[in-house]
Design brief:
The chain is an all-alpha fold. It contains 8 helices and no strands.
Length: about 180
């Protein structure tokens, strides 16, 4: 019975805070590939805390989750720095995780779905070559649908800087495809 109450409250908190936590972690990570791991660790600690202290322990869920995320980001990077100091870099390097983009094929025909998935994969490959800040901006803007002002605030940049990086990269992608079509 207690587990059902905790699980229900955890799901409620997860649903209401996931977007904010993901945006915060994305903005604060120095390596985009670490985002999913840190997000998962944040919610694992939330669930563990709720098991130990009860479902009613958390008053302000958003503040609690963001504080957990802050600690997880800090711990993650200080641990990596300590490991690098004590071990060779080859031990620290991890394989890159790739997010799989899913589309509802029922809403579009198969050919259109294949073209869309290929285009998304190609754009992701182009973005992989870009600096971390540009990749973060794209993720925050197009995956989490944050405004340019929200992204600027999260990343500690000016809105014009975010806008410039975003639009410059979009133009580079457009140019890449125009040149590809003319060949």
């Amino acid at each position: 019975m207690v587990d059902n109450i905790i699980t229900s409250r955890f799901n409620e908190i997860y649903d209401s805070t996931n977007k904010q936590a993901l945006a915060y972690i994305t903005a604060k990570c120095s390596n985009f590939e670490d985002v999913n791991d840190i997000l998962q660790e944040t919610y694992m600690e939330l669930y563990d805390t709720m098991l130990k202290k009860g479902a009613d322990y958390i008053d302000n869920a958003e503040a609690f989750v963001i504080e957990l995320a802050k600690r997880k980001v800090y711990r993650h990077y200080t641990l990596i720095q300590r490991m690098k100091a004590n071990m060779s870099l080859s031990v620290v390097t991890a394989a890159e995780d790739k997010e799989i983009i899913e589309y509802e094929i029922s809403e579009m025909d198969l050919e259109e779905s294949i073209c869309t998935n290929e285009l998304a994969a190609e754009i992701e490959r182009l973005l992989q070559k870009k600096p971390q800040d540009i990749r973060k901006i794209f993720f925050l803007r197009f995956s989490l649908e944050l405004t340019l002002g929200e992204i600027a605030e999260l990343m500690g940049l000016g809105e014009s800087q975010v806008k410039n990086k975003l639009y410059r990269t979009i133009n580079e992608i457009r140019t890449y495809y125009r040149e590809g079509e003319s060949q």
